[in-house]
């Protein structure tokens, strides 16, 4: 596979965003309309004690991604109330049209701060009745959260409808650990799979579906799955569990796996077709890929250095 | 109404001096009957840390069947380790409910974690013993009953029973946190789930017991017994704020049901409340009912949420 990079297309510091946000445009996710493409992303405000709260915003591009035609002006989805799983941030959000092709589902990853570790995460669900301008949560609680063998950090949902079934790829935490090279406890998370007939109640398969490449502490995040050429293709990002913020070699890269049956995945990073570019905005890190169809082309949105602090870029699949 | 005759306090952990993990509190007594003794599972705590925060452990003590005030054995070590970093039960295992399944014993317990904006959160885990309840192994690192769309936090106070081959779990569900000027306090209500195996549960998704003292009344520890085709529930309730003192503290309520789904509350029938003086003069809570030699007994917590131990009452009046 070969991705042709089209460059960074959005820098959040150059626009006015709602919810007091000014930096970060992470985990871009699309909703494609007839005449434009809405790209949702997670951006951040600083709260009273100087910690970040992630909020969702969007930017609308024309279908050639040359021109910004609209930016969200109001809160799209509020953070959760006191004690709720999404009180301290929503990052990322995944938007998908339901089986009927109309109802817009938003699968959120909600964050809640903890004491012995930084935070925990669970997956929530909201619906939109206004073409994705705003979303209403179906409840105060999550649809997928800690369970017997996925004890924490359940998040990064990506949902797709194939063969009239909702499929979800998501991540779960497998361990928190203390390492002398880091100030705070670090986490390990892996990609897993669940399916559903209604998009609300999910049946988890209960296993890590992507083999580790680096080591057992490899962190795998934000899967995105697309079907073409008779195969299902998954892109995701992965990194070392420590040192990934500052050391280029230990930071996020994009990985790749393929499947014929949505069950068995073969990891094949060699064929991923996208890597860091020296001297550019994505020289040290590649993360949070999102792959989608638009006007007979296949695109990838992704973040570069500093986890998307200064925006996201676009690549197109070059056949 | 029921008539419970109070027999006095059975156990006060602060009178022990040889277990640093069992210094205060003896909460949520749960009985299993053995041939030679009755075993009471409960939760206890070491002294608080330098910030005043507690962890809690599971323990048991064995009582002489002929004299229930005769403690003949106390577990040497906590029955479960606290959870690993970041897991739901990292900071406590309390309360708990024990049940015998063939040769195994299972404990359903509430695990505690600590949060930033609110003091804590909880979910329900399960552990199994293959050695007659002396040691337990957790089923996994995570909870068995966890948060869902309309049960967003604070799942606790599990009480497990099997009636007619169906597993039932009564538990408390957090409804909201009251900000309370920076000292958040939770509101929780009693709900039920059922199961074929005690592992995979179906939540019924409804608050079972109508509210009495205020809209934000907190309800927990639903102890259900079946007698002559009728279900009887004894539970605890309190005000949402100011509950650490007598007037708004825990009391034991009562409800009954013919179908285990629809409950009619009538606290006037509970037949047990605070005493004029003594160890249970400010609060009574966390009832647990068991039968021994054709007598029906209730173990319950007294003042300070059971900090100074639990006591015993015996059913005298025959409401049944």
Can you tell me about this structure?
The complex is a heterodimer of chains A (319) and B (320). Chain A is mainly beta and 319 residues long. Chain A has a single domain, classed as Tachylectin-2, Chain A (5 Propeller), CATH 2.115.10.20. Chain A has strands at 3-10, 23-32, 36-46, 52-62, 68-71, 90-97, 104-113, 119-128, 136-137, 152-162, 165-177, 186-196, 203-204, 219-228, 231-239, 253-259, 266-267, 287-294, 297-303, 312-317. In chain A, the strands form 5 sheets. A 4-stranded antiparallel sheet of chain A has the order 1-20-19-18, with no helix packed on it. A 4-stranded antiparallel sheet of chain A has the order 2-3-4-5, with no helix packed on it. Chain A has a 4-stranded antiparallel sheet with strand order 6-7-8-9, with no helix packed on it. In chain A, strand 10 (152-162) and strand 11 (165-177) form a beta hairpin. Chain A is globular. The N and C termini of chain A lie close together (8 Å). The mean pLDDT of chain A is 97. Chain B is an all-beta fold. Chain B has one domain (3-20, 81-317): Tachylectin-2, Chain A, CATH 2.115.10.20. Helix content of chain B is 1%, strand content 52%. Chain B has one helix at 303-306; strands at residues 3-11, 24-33, 37-45, 57-64, 67-74, 93-101, 104-114, 120-129, 137-138, 153-163, 166-178, 185-195, 201-203, 218-227, 230-238, 251-257, 264-265, 285-292, 295-301, 310-317. In chain B, the strands form 5 sheets. In chain B, strands 1-20-19-18 form a 4-stranded antiparallel sheet. Classes of the chains: A mainly beta (319), B mainly beta (320). Chains A and B meet through strand 8 and strand 11 of A and strand 11 of B.
List the helices and strands and how they pair.
The complex is a heterodimer of chains A (319) and B (320).
Chain A: E1 3-10, E2 23-32, E3 36-46, E4 52-62, E5 68-71, E6 90-97, E7 104-113, E8 119-128, E9 136-137, E10 152-162, E11 165-177, E12 186-196, E13 203-204, E14 219-228, E15 231-239, E16 253-259, E17 266-267, E18 287-294, E19 297-303, E20 312-317
Antiparallel strand pairs in A: 1-20, 2-3, 3-4, 4-5, 6-7, 7-8, 8-9, 10-11, 11-12, 12-13, 14-15, 15-16, 16-17, 18-19, 19-20
Chain B: E1 3-11, E2 24-33, E3 37-45, E4 57-64, E5 67-74, E6 93-101, E7 104-114, E8 120-129, E9 137-138, E10 153-163, E11 166-178, E12 185-195, E13 201-203, E14 218-227, E15 230-238, E16 251-257, E17 264-265, E18 285-292, E19 295-301, H1 303-306, E20 310-317
Antiparallel strand pairs in B: 1-20, 2-3, 3-4, 4-5, 6-7, 7-8, 8-9, 10-11, 11-12, 12-13, 14-15, 15-16, 16-17, 18-19, 19-20
């Amino acid at each position: 596979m070969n991705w042709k990079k089209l460059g960074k297309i959005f820098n959040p510091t150059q626009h006015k965003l709602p919810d007091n946000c000014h930096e970060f445009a992470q985990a871009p996710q699309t909703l494609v309309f007839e005449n434009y493409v809405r790209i949702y992303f997670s951006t951040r405000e600083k709260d009273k004690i100087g910690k970040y709260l992630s909020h969702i915003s969007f930017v609308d591009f024309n279908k050639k991604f040359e021109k910004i035609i609209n930016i969200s002006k109001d809160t799209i989805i509020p953070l959760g109330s006191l004690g709720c799983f999404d009180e301290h941030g929503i990052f990322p959000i995944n938007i998908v049209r339901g089986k009927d092709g109309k109802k817009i589902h938003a699968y959120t990853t909600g964050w809640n701060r903890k004491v012995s570790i930084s935070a925990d995460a669970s997956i929530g669900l909201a619906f939109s009745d206004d073409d994705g301008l705003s979303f209403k949560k179906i409840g105060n609680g999550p649809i997928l959260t800690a369970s017997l063998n996925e004890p924490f950090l359940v998040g990064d949902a990506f949902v797709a409808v194939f063969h009239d079934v909702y499929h979800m790829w998501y991540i779960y935490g497998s361990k928190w650990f203390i390492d002398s090279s880091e100030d705070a406890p670090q986490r390990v998370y892996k990609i897993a799979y669940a399916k559903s007939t209604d998009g609300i109640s999910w049946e988890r398969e209960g296993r890590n579906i992507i083999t580790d490449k680096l080591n057992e502490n490899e962190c795998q995040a934000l899967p995105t799955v697309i079907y073409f050429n008779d195969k299902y293709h998954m892109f995701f990002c992965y990194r070392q569990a420590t040192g990934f913020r500052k050391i280029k070699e230990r930071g996020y890269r994009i990985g790749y796996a393929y499947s014929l049956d949505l069950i068995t995945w073969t990891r094949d990073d060699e064929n991923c077709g996208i890597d860091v570019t020296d001297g550019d905005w994505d020289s040290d890190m590649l993360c949070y890929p999102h792959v989608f169809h638009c006007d007979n082309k296949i695109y990838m949105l992704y973040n570069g250095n500093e986890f998307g602090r200064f925006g996201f870029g676009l690549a197109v699949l070059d056949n | 109404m029921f008539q419970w005759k109070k027999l006095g306090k059975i156990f006060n952990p602060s009178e022990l001096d040889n277990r640093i993990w069992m210094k205060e509190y003896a909460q949520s007594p749960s009985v299993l009957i053995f041939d030679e003794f009755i075993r009471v599972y409960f939760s206890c705590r070491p002294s608080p840390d330098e910030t005043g925060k507690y962890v809690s452990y599971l323990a048991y003590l064995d009582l002489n069947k002929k004299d229930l005030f005769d403690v003949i054995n106390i577990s040497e070590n906590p029955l479960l380790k606290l959870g690993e970093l970041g897991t739901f039960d990292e900071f406590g295992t309390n309360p708990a409910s024990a049940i015998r399944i063939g040769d195994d014993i299972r404990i359903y317990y509430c695990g505690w974690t600590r949060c930033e904006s609110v003091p804590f959160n909880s979910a329900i885990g399960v552990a199994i013993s293959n050695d007659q309840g002396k040691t337990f192994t957790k089923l996994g690192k995570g909870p068995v009953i966890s948060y869902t769309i309309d049960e967003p936090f604070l799942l606790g106070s599990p009480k497990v029973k099997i009636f007619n081959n169906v597993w039932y779990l009564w538990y408390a569900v957090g409804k909201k946190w009251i900000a309370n000027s920076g000292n958040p306090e939770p509101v929780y209500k009693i709900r039920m789930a059922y199961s074929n195996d005690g592992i995979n549960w179906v939540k019924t998704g409804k608050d079972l017991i109508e509210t009495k003292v205020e809209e934000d009344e907190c309800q927990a520890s639903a102890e259900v017994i079946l007698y002559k085709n009728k279900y009887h529930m004894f539970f605890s309730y309190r005000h949402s704020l100011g509950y650490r003192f007598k007037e708004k503290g825990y009391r034991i309520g009562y409800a009954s049901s013919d179908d285990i789904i629809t409950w009619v509350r009538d606290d006037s029938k509970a037949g047990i409340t605070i005493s004029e003086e003594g160890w249970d003069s400010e609060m009574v809570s966390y009832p647990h009912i068991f039968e021994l030699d054709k007598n029906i007994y209730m173990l319950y917590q007294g003042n300070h949420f059971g900090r100074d131990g639990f006591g015993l009452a015996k059913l005298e009046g025959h409401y049944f």
